[in-house]
Amino acid sequence: MKMAVVTRASTLALCFIQTFSLPGASSARPVVTVRVFNYAGIPPNAMARAERELTRIFSTTGIQTHWLDCPVSPDALQKAPICGGSWYWTDLLLRVIPAATTDRSNNSLGFSLPSPEGGLMAVIFYDRVEELANAKVAGAGQILGHAVAHEIGHLLLGSIIHSSSGLMSSPWRREDLKFARLLFSPQEAKKMRREVIRRMQLPLRAE
């Protein structure tokens, strides 16, 4: 039996042809924008670390994330209205608040509001993040980034159900959080990619 030999150059050319010639094919990479409202007054270095963690975690799923710091006061919003205007279904709203609400369990870092139509909002409790940071589990920014990724996962998976392992499990093993071993499963990543692509094809949503 003869073996077909395909060079790297021809492989790349074939991939290019397949991507741009198939009917209905799209070259757009799945992208979501996370509009972050920092009501907890978190220092910039911790927010920057959280953004890096979110980017790293989602890079394993094939989904690109844009982190957008939004003004939290009316005066700041007038001076820099970067989060105004129309929103797409791929624009996710993240509120980081100072303290957990009384209706949440003691080990909850936050919550999200997924829905079959496409959930958009997630909330993180920064006092719970600080508790873990003070216990030397990991740095506050690292913990925050994982918590944000987890809640965004709920929004894109359309469910509040937790998995038995990985980033979408609850509670996490402290060692996994400390050494940044928490990731989405391949099945979760595939489902989220499909959801983001679906949202990218929708029109602007009503404000």
Q: Count structural domains.
A: 1
CATH class: Alpha Beta
Runs with pLDDT <50, length 5+?
1-26
Strand content: 5-15%
The CATH superfamily turns out to be Collagenase (Catalytic Domain)
| Number of helices, where a helix is a run of at least 4 consecutive DSSP H or I residues | 7
User: Which value, in Å, is the CA radius of gyration?
Assistant: 19 Å
Strand numbers in spatial order across the main sheet? 2-1-3-5-4
Choose one word for the global shape.
globular
N-end to C-end Cα span: 63 Å
Do you know the CATH architecture?
3-Layer(aba) Sandwich
The helix content, as a percent range, equals 40-55%
Which class do the helix and strand fractions yield? alpha/beta
Main sheet overview: 5 strands, mixed
Would you give the CATH topology? Collagenase (Catalytic Domain)
Report the count of strand segments.
5
- Please write the string of helix (H) and strand (E) elements: HEHEHEEEHHHH
Mean pLDDT, rounded to whole units?
84
Properties at a glance:
single chain, 207 residues, alpha/beta, Collagenase (Catalytic Domain), five-stranded mixed beta sheet, disordered N terminus
